[in-house]
Amino acid sequence: LDLRGTQIRQLPKKIVGLRSTLRALLLGSEGMINNPIAPAGVQHLHMLSTLATIDLSEQPASFVEALGAMENLRVLAITWSFHQSSDGTYREALRSSIRKWKSLKSLTIHCGLGCSMEFLGVLPNPPKDLEKFKVTAGRFVTIPKWIRVLKLLSFVQITICRQHTDDMHILGQLRNLECLVLGLDFFPEEAIVIESAGFPELQRFSVDCLVPWLTFRTGAMRKLTYLQLKFLSCPASSQTSVPSGIGSLQSLTEVALCYYKRYSDSPNVKVVEKAVREAVAGHDNQVDL
User: Fold this and answer.
1) What is the CA radius of gyration of the chain?
2) 217-255: per-residue pLDDT in tens?
3) Alpha-carbon gap, residue 142 to 66, rounded angstroms
4) Which residue, of 126, 147, 167, 193, has the fewest CB within 10 Å?
5) Which of 260, 262, 225, 229 is nearest to 244 (CA)?
6) Nearest by Cα to 157 from 111, 188, 200, 196
7) How far lies 174's CA from each of 33, 161, 180, in Å?
8) Three-class SS of residue 248?
């Protein structure tokens, strides 16, 4: 049942009559949701395997906790507000439900701007079959340690707000990780080093940061074909705090630099662009920039 793009704003009460047959319910589009559908009654559809995107921002904590009874969920996308991330009752309700979704393969959380998601930093018994974990706008202090036990994880999108040496190591040990979208909401005090070991299957790597101070060691990310660097014009950057070692990415075929057009003449943007262009020009592959 796909209700995206319709004029429906409230699920009919009779939808509970589909509790034994309905497998997929699509309520809102990926990312921002315009005029979200009130999801009353959804918690009774226990046979659902796909539920996206359900707006929880106006729902009571008891509703969030009740979703935990939907044991057949495989794909789930939700919206989460700043208020909820600040309320202990809501935080525990979401943690409780995540622990019960044993068969979950994909979890997407669209957060309100500035949401701290650190309450999910500790999560005993996460869904072991999770293949996709995506959190937009919300921030963690560091990479949650429980991610390392998810052997099937192939897609991760997460933002962290502190530089920690273990973060890249934890992500690098994910044997099936193919796509990583990493937000760095801090100014790095030193280069973020990507070692030669780790990331055995990574093909796409996107970094959203203030300064793209990344260093790739020889042999790093052996299967990486696409690298995207989103950054700002930061006056504290210098000739040394630029990407290095891009030439070591042996499978690379495309590099994308993303920044606001109004910063195109910034000296700092030019320094980064010059460093990347030189690395691409000297690459063994024909790399598009």
Assistant:
1) 21
2) 999 999 999 999 999 866 555 566 899 999 999 999 999
3) 29
4) 193
5) 229
6) 111
7) 31, 21, 11
8) helix
- CA 219 to each of CA 75, 222, 223: distance values in angstroms, whole numbers, following the listed order: 35, 6, 10
The three state secondary structure string of 126-164 is CCCCCCEEEEECCEECCCCHHHHHCCCCCEEEEEECCCC
Q: How many residues does the chain have?
A: 289
Report the C-alpha gap between 67 and 44 in whole angstroms.
Answer: 8
- Between strands 106-111 and 75-80, the pairing is parallel
How far apart CA 226 and CA 205 sit, in angstroms, is 6
- Which among 190, 219, 188, 184 has a CA at the least distance from the CA of 202? 219
Please answer whether residues 142 and 167 qualify as being in contact, where contact means their C-beta atoms are separated by less than 8 angstroms: yes
Single-letter code of the amino acid located at 130:
L
Of the candidates 241, 246, 236, 245, which has an alpha carbon nearest to the alpha carbon of residue 272? 241
- Over the stretch 143-183, which tens digit does the pLDDT of each residue have? 999 999 999 999 999 999 999 989 999 999 999 999 999 99
Question: d(Cα 87, Cα 110) in Å, to the nearest integer?
Answer: 17
- Where does residue 90 rank: exposed (0-12), middle (13-18), buried (19+ CB within 10 A)? buried
The answer to whether 255 touches 206, Cβ cutoff 8 Å, is: no
